[in-house]
User: What shape does this take?
Amino acid sequence: RLPSPAPESSFERRMGKRKNRSKAMLRAAKRRGHVAGKSAAAADGAGASPSIANPNKKVFGDDDDAGTGDARQTVNVPPPPAAPSHHRAAEKIVLPSTTAPWFSRTLDGNKPTHFEDYYRRQAILPDEEWGSFLSHLRKPLPVTFRMSNMASHANGVAEALAEGKHLLRPRQQLYNEVTGRPIPPPKELRWCNGWQLGCDKMALKYSRTPELREFQRWLVKYNSTGVLTRQAVDSMVPAAILGVEPRHFVLDMCASPGSKTTQCIEQLNANNTGAGSIPTGCVVANDINPRRAYFLVRRCAALGAATGSLMVTNHHAQWFPNPGVPIRTLPEGIQSACAGGGLDARTSSRDPAPAATREDSGRYPEGVYDRIICDVPCSGDGTLRKNPQIWSEWRPEFAMGLHQLQLRIAQRGAALLKVGGYMVYSTCSFNPVENEAVVAELVRRCGGALEIVDASDRVADLKRRPGMKHWRVVTMVDDESVEYPTYEDSQKESVSVGLRRKFERSMWPPKSGVTKLGKRIKGPPLERCMRLMPHLQDMGGFFATLLKKVAPLPGPNEPRRAGVARAMSTREEGTGAGAGPFGSGTGGAPRRRSEHAYSPASTSLVESLRREWGGTGTWESEFAAGLHVRSDTNRALTYLSPGVRAACVDRPGAARIKCVWSGVKVFEKRGTALGERREVITEGDEGAEGADGSYDEDD
Assistant: This one.
């Protein structure tokens, strides 16, 4: 009777019980103790006899190889390595979840990222603060919001605070459902009339805790009415230090998604309680993307009647038009030919612009805005807490590719700013190539017309770090950091052609100190810039600088080409677009009739509305003067505030502005219902019967 076979191990099942399939693998498995029926001592080599020739060799008895002619096998066994005293176990850092597309949510804790290596070289923080800095960057951003300071929302704010008093100042401790850690109570931010919660948006949105679910419903309810606005703490800084007043013309050059725009509108309408207190200023919000511009309109709609002081435009920020500069006219010989081609009749009927505004008198045209927010596109590494996918994508070349665009946008903002006005240059980045380097070059190019203002007294409760005076220009080549001490070093033959083109002289720190000849060079006061760090006040990373225009900008030093100078100073046809009705006219090419311009409503239409709705004595002076239309069909009537009309409609160059939306729609043609009066309102034929519908009040 044959003995029963020994139970097979999982390893033997995986190997298919074929002994000769891989003897080396079987022997390695025995040493690891993966073969069933072997004692731990045998698996670890205990009881094995050492080799006579080499004491480091041990001889193992291979029962599985019995009968194969090789009953004993000599195997090299390396000596056990000595455990180092500073041994670090493998550490994985899990990043917060996000709604972004899939990305690796883990980081190797033992290997520094490109981000960490780059900014340690830049020395943006002392060494003792790096642990706290990185720890906060790997945590989700807490929810923050600010209460409206408009006079029309005063009752709504009081109602919201009364309803949410037990939420903003809870009496019992709340805990995170996932981590089990206590949630800090909400913290009041007095400098921006805001609040900061102790949890992030994902925990607030998907929590099962009754108190947090009630908090989420409270936020949604009052955010939809404009009583409060959810906005990051760092994003509130530009408008807070700008100091917007009801009489100011404000321009937000890169406005989307619109949180700073709504903040400026609220400051503009802080004292607006109704008739007689309408602000005389306005806010112009611009974005390069039409889709984002319409999203901006939708976000500002919660402010209600306050959007009468808003105009949303669609332009490249670096080429934003100056509405104060008149548009050139065409020679008289081709004005009649252009009239049938859809050109703007208002433009073609004006006289040529005076020499003072032709941009050939040695200076730029005068600015038209009192306050400008220049929040330029950037690499965005300050938003790591909201966008953790940047950890695996970040490279220093991103900032280098945006440096020139940021400088051009800032220069255009300085040109559009009035003398005595203020402009904020800001980014959501830590990189000095995008921050201090742009500010230093902007101040240098403006030739003393701009100065950096210390805004520390405007947000006294905000914790920040001063701007940097010294930094390095570093790139990553084959995952290795390469530093370029000077611009000439970056242009050597050893550097690739594609990388050489990314460098600009303005990326390096401005010269300061004492030269070899004993001359003292004083650089711009970059320490007045503001750097917001996440670990200082549990926020995102941000950079902001307040600039004041103290003198007109100097004109370009180099002379214009002969053809350009002749076209700008004479009535000759230009040479750039050819002759004909759509060729170049005086001072530039003619423009077709703008489809985005607002024009005043006709007198007969206003009078018909007055009779229908019973206008009072202030009808003509306060309300009727602000009614505008955008088409010849008079489909909708929009109210524009006096500030919008003064800054963007009545200006001589207003036709340049490509407006997406402005004002408040008060009447709209919806069609004719049964029993309604069918009336056509046209110029010179009041009360005529027709097929057009009447105007209904827009709810």
The chain is about 25% helix and 20% strand. The two ends are 98 Å apart (CA to CA).
